[in-house]
Design a protein that fits this description.
It is built from 19 helices and 15 strands. Helix 4 (43-49) packs antiparallel against helix 13 and helix 15 packs across helix 17 (383-399). It has two domains: 52-285, Aspartate Aminotransferase, domain 2, CATH 3.40.640.10; 289-440, Aspartate Aminotransferase, domain 1 (Alpha-Beta Complex), CATH 3.90.1150. Strand 2 (60-61) and strand 3 (64-65) form a beta hairpin. The strands form four sheets. It has a seven-stranded mixed sheet with strand order 4-10-9-8-7-5-6, sandwiched between helices. Strands 11-12-15-14 form a four-stranded antiparallel sheet, covered by helices on one side. The chain has a two-stranded parallel ribbon with strand order 1-13. By secondary structure, the chain is α/β, with parallel strands linked by helices. The structure holds D-serine. Residues 37, 100, 128, 177 line the site of D-serine.
Length: 449
């Protein structure tokens, strides 16, 4: 078995932490990981991430640092940058953002002034907090004008156009965390050009699909691209900001502005162990087999969506074009996401409760379930397994139909009773056994020689 499971040194020095990490490896091994923003990092990548590069302070950029000792670290960051430029077809890449939210803040810092109008997909419609939601800095420092999905669950491009013309935003985001359809980057590009806005693709969720050529690339239509590195790209937790040719045509200083916004504007020393692992992830994504992997993610999502609907569940937008599915639980009542997600967890199936467009409940007690196929596809599962998993998910959700979200004061007591009943539920117990048996056939970490 590999070091990241055996943990020989940690087991001796800190058995408490070592034991919990081993348990987490087993959870990844024997559970069905369907949270669409999570994935399995390869053992090779974990070696880079767990390396001595974590020791190094590296403020600045390759060949322009504030410390000494860059004989090996500069080439590593340069390789990450060059692989990012090659993979996405862009003239400039910054691979230092710690993660997606700080990367988006750097984009604001480089392109906007406080009080400027910005537009993004409304959070309950599938957008991201950093695209202008009121509880995020992006909704506090900028004047946020959100756009929405229509009654069919597709982005309402007519609304995007008319809001842009009315409010003349400085920046428009195209991207989401819970949207199941392909983005029309070209249409967004025309709207942004008409009003002179920066257009930024936050393609964190679908990067792997774009690199695999399964979805169209935004590169010719947007000025900037932000992507996290740990979702469909299967890298370490982190992010990149890419400046396109169109971006440099709009503002020849855009690449410098982005670099200055990341450091020293927002961040200190970059995490070079994370950057090395990003280089490894990009190397993996540049291999021809990644194209097949990306295509399989979408085939799996479509197969899972069909199985869920065949087994009686309603989906936002009726299906999916990408890796992600949003189950609408309102036919069973409002605010039922918590029951479904906890019952599924009891069966070893990991998803997340999520708001749906026009959710009748609240973000903590939403009426939807978000799930997706990137991680299971990495494990090697295909359409046959998806059909089976869809049946299990529907069966578990069926067991939760009798539960109704009570008034606030009674919730703690009610949820306690619900959790005890779910634990003892024999139908859910049977699914749990089946999940474990299926997972044993697709080993990823512990099943290695
Ligand atoms: N929290 C991430 C997700 O799960 O999609 C987005 O930032």
């Amino acid at each position: 078995m590999d070091w990241f499971y055996e943990l020989p040194n940690l087991t001796k020095s800190d058995p408490e932490i070592a034991a919990l990490i081993k348990k987490e490896v087993e959870r990844w091994e024997f559970g069905l990981q369907l949270i669409p923003s999570e994935n399995y990092a390869s053992p090779a990548l974990l070696e880079a991430l767990g390396s001595v590069l974590t020791n190094k302070y590296a403020e600045g950029y390759p060949r322009k640092r504030y410390y000494s000792g860059f004989e090996f670290v500069d080439p590593i960051e340069t390789i990450a940058i060059e692989r990012a430029k090659k993979a996405f077809g862009v003239p400039h890449a910054n691979v230092q953002p710690y993660s997606g939210s700080p990367a988006n803040m750097a984009i604001y810092l480089a392109t906007c002034n406080p009080g400027d109008v910005i537009m993004g997909l409304n959070l309950p419609d599938g957008g991201h907090l950093t695209h202008g939601w009121k509880t995020s800095v992006s909704g506090m420092f900028y004047k946020s004008v959100p756009y929405h999905v229509n009654e069919n669950g597709y982005i309402d491009m007519e609304e995007v156009r008319s809001l842009a013309q009315q409010h003349r935003p400085r920046l428009i985001w195209v991207g989401a965390t819970a949207y199941t359809r392909e983005f029309d980057f070209e249409a967004f590009g025309k709207i942004a050009d008409d009003v002179g806005a920066y257009l930024v693709a936050d393609m964190s969720h679908v990067t792997g699909l774009i690199l695999a050529g399964v979805h169209k690339s935004p590169v010719d239509h947007v000025h900037l691209i932000m992507t996290t590195t740990h979702k469909t790209l299967r890298g370490p937790r982190g992010a990149m900001i890419l400046v396109t040719k169109k971006g440099l045509d709009k503002d020849p200083e855009l690449a410098d502005k982005i670099d200055r916004a990341v450091f020293p504007g927002l961040q200190g020393g970059p995490h070079e162990h994370q950057i090395a692992a990003t280089a490894v992830a990009l190397g993996e994504a540049l291999k021809p087999e990644f194209r097949e992997h990306g295509a399989q993610i979408v085939k799996n999502a479509k197969a899972l969506a069909s199985s869920l609907t065949d087994n009686g569940l309603k989906l936002v937008s009726g299906g999916t074009d990408n890796h992600l599915i949003l189950i609408d639980l309102t036919p069973f009542g409002a605010g039922k996401g918590i029951f479904a997600s906890e019952a599924l967890e009891a069966a070893g199936i990991f998803v997340n409760k999520n708001t749906i467009p026009n959710d009748p409940s609240t973000p903590f007690y939403p009426s939807g379930i978000r799930l997706g196929t990137p991680a299971l596809t990495t494990r090697g599962m295909k359409e046959g397994e998806m059909a089976q998993i869809g049946e299990w998910i529907a069966a578990v959700i069926n067991e939760t139909r009798v539960y109704e979200l009570p008034e606030k004061e009674q919730r703690a007591e009610y949820l306690k009773k619900f959790r005890a009943e779910i634990k003892a539920n024999s139908a859910i117990g049977r699914v749990k056994d089946n999940v474990k048996a299926l997972c044993s056939m697709f080993p990823f970490y512990t099943g290695r020689a």
